[in-house]
Design brief:
about 50% helix, 12 strands, about 375 residues, about 15% strand, alpha+beta
Amino acid sequence: MRINTNVNALNAQRNLQVSGYDLAKALERLSSGKRVNRAGDDAAGLAIGQKLQAQVRGLGQAIRNAQDGISMVQTAEGALDETQAILQRMRELAVQAANGSLASDERSKITAEFQNLQQEITRIAQTTQFGDTYLINGNLAQTAGSALGANLTAANGFLGVRTVGAIAATTYSITVDTATSTIYLFRSASNSNIQTAVQFSAPTAGSFTVTVGGVQVDLLASVLATGSIYASTGATTFSVTGGTSMMIGTGNTQTYDALSFGLLNMTAGSSGLAVGSLQVDTASNANEAITKITAAIGSVSSERAKLGALQNRMEHTINNLSISFENLSASQSRIIDADFAYEVSQMVRGQILQQAGTAVAAQANQLPQGVLALLR
C-alpha cells in the first residue's frame, strides 16, 4: 500500500475532468444552439458552414433586391398606365377637333385641354421616382453607342451592329473569322477575357441574330457574300451605357447575377412619344395628331409590356432564390446547429458521470487511510 501516490484518486480525477469537459461542451451547445461554436469543435464543418452562411445571407439580400426591383417596375408601370390614359383622351380630343363642323372658338377650347394633357404627361415623367431614382424622364434610358471600324461596313457586307439586353456600361468586341464562320464576343477591345464564341451560317441577304451569354447580337446585312463572312482584321467595338441594374444573384458574374434594363424617356417631347409639339387648332393638324398619338400609345404599350415581362421574370427569380435559400439553410443547419435531443442526452450523461466521479474520487481519497491500521 502506498500513500505518496494515490493512483486510484488520480484515475478518478482524470475521468472526472473528462466528464466535466463533456458536460461543459453539452451545456455550451445547448445554450448557444450551435454544434460548432469554435474551430476546435469541427474545423472542416466551420469552414463549410461559414461558406454556406455567406451564400444564405447573399440569397436573402438577392430576394430583397428582386422584391425592390418589382416595386420599382410597378411604380414605373403605374405611371405609364396613367400616361396611356392621357394619350387615349388626347386622341379622343384630336378626333373631335378633326371634325370639320367645329368653329375656331370650339377648337380653342379643345386645344386648352389638349395642351394641359401634354403638360401633364411631362409632369408625370419628370416626377415619377423610386426612392431617389427618376424612372421615366430619361435618366434610365439605355444608349447603344457604336464604334464601327472599317471591317463592319456596307462595303464589307454589313450595315451595322446592335445589341439587345447587353450589360450596361460594358464594352464588347466582335471579331468575325472567315475560316470558321464564327463570331467571337469579347468583354474588352484587346480581345482578352473571351465570353463565348458561336457558330453561324452567313445568309445571302437580310439580317440574322445570335444570342451570346444572354446578349442578343443582331448583325444587319445588306447583301452578304454567299458562303463566307468577311474577315475582321481588328476589334470592332460597341457599348451599351445607361439604364440600371438589379443584383439578383449572389456572385459577381454580371451576365447572370445582375439584371440590366432601361426605361425610355416618356416626356411628351421625347422621341419615344413625340406628342409635345402636336396641335389640334385645325382639322389638318388634328389628323396629324391622331396618327402620332396612335404611335405614342403603341410605344407606351411596348414599354409597359417590357416592364410586365421584367416583373414576371423577377417573380420567378424570387421563387428560385427562395428554394435555394431554404435548401442551403437546411444544409448549414445540419452542419452548424446543435441537435438538442442528442445534446440533452449528453448533458444528462455528463451530470451522472460527474456525480459518480465525485463520489468515486471521495472513496479513492479514503483508501490510503487503511495504512493507519498497519501503524497500530
